[in-house]
Backbone:
């Protein structure tokens, strides 16, 4: 089975219908700009659910927010399903539902249905998929154990939705919800401030939203880092081999476990396991300072972010690992191609 690298961009998006403001839609895509055009009928594609609902036209749709930073497309699909069915997803624990999320958005609705044999059976359905309900699910999933340590980035495009998000966050804090992890960021794109009135009265060209095209969907930003890594690894010789700057042991080709600092001016190089332990130690020490207790050994396996020992600059763990996955993917692809040519 071929191992896939960490995708350059893969996001979960939340849409809201313009003619039916109470209708929302959740999807997943590597290109939100193209996907929005598909849903609005500009180009071929899009889900059937975004064409008509309850016998009424629900196009056009407006992009409310996107969630990006997933380490794989599978993680993004899991988040998409949980955001669409937050009332029954197992990603939100039963304990959190009993203690923190005691709102109507997380309660399943019961209804009696008549089966084909003539008997009655109970059917569970979710609450109406309004914007407030989706935002409640989003807030809960960002705090869930399955996603709280991922480097997720939430970007809002609608000012009214941003205000509702802040109101939802304040309510959850009062109910005892834990704060978001430091690796998760939630921001509002105020460069294109859009309100519900702007969309409803056509002030904003929602059918071809230009600000979505400004998102970084390619790997150009990784090229310089990959080039710097290749230059650092190519200077090694038998007389002067490269050494891990944390454990001081030699680094041997093909350097499949070597990571390099993502900052352009830093040449710090180390084993991925050594740097992971260092970042976890930093997280444990910082958590101990915040809670005024002694530092203890962490039970986590992967860190969120840390301070580079070489340049003392903060960086996310995924910024170290993503170039490594592409290096390994390129090597495995070359091996597979050479094997096919020999056959």
Residues:
């Amino acid at each position: 089975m071929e191992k896939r690298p960490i995708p350059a961009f893969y996001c979960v998006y939340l849409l809201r219908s313009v003619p039916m403001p109470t209708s929302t839609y959740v999807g997943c895509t590597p290109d939100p700009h193209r996907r929005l055009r598909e849903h609005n009928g500009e180009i071929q594609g899009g889900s059937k659910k975004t064409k008509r609902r309850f016998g009424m036209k629900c196009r056009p749709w407006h992009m409310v927010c996107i969630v990006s930073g997933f380490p794989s497309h599978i993680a993004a699909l899991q988040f998409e399903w949980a955001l669409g069915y937050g009332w029954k997803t197992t990603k939100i624990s039963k304990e959190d539902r009993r203690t923190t999320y005691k709102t109507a958005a997380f309660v399943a609705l019961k209804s009696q249905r008549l089966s084909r044999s003539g008997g009655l059976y109970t059917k569970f359905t979710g609450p109406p998929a309004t914007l407030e309900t989706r935002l409640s699910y989003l807030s809960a999933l960002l705090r869930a154990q399955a996603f709280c340590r991922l480097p997720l980035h939430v970007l809002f495009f609608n000012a009214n939705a941003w205000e509702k998000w802040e109101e939802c966050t304040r309510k959850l804090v009062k109910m005892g919800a834990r704060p978001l992890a430091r690796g998760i960021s939630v921001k509002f794109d105020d460069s294109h401030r859009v309100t519900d009135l702007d969309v409803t009265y056509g002030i904003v060209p929602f059918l071809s939203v230009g600000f979505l095209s400004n998102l970084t969907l390619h790997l150009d930003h990784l090229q310089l880092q990959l080039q710097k890594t290749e230059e650092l690894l190519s200077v090694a010789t038998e007389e002067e081999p490269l050494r891990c700057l944390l454990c001081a042991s030699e680094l041997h080709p093909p350097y499949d476990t070597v990571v390099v600092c993502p900052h352009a001016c830093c040449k710090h190089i180390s084993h991925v396991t050594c740097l992971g332990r260092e970042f976890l130690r930093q997280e444990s020490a910082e958590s101990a300072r915040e809670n005024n207790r002694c530092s203890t050994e962490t039970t986590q396996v992967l860190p969120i972010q840390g301070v580079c020992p070489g340049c003392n600059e903060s960086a996310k763990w995924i910024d170290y690992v993503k170039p490594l996955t592409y290096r390994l993917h390129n090597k495995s692809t070359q091996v597979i191609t050479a094997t096919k040519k020999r056959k």
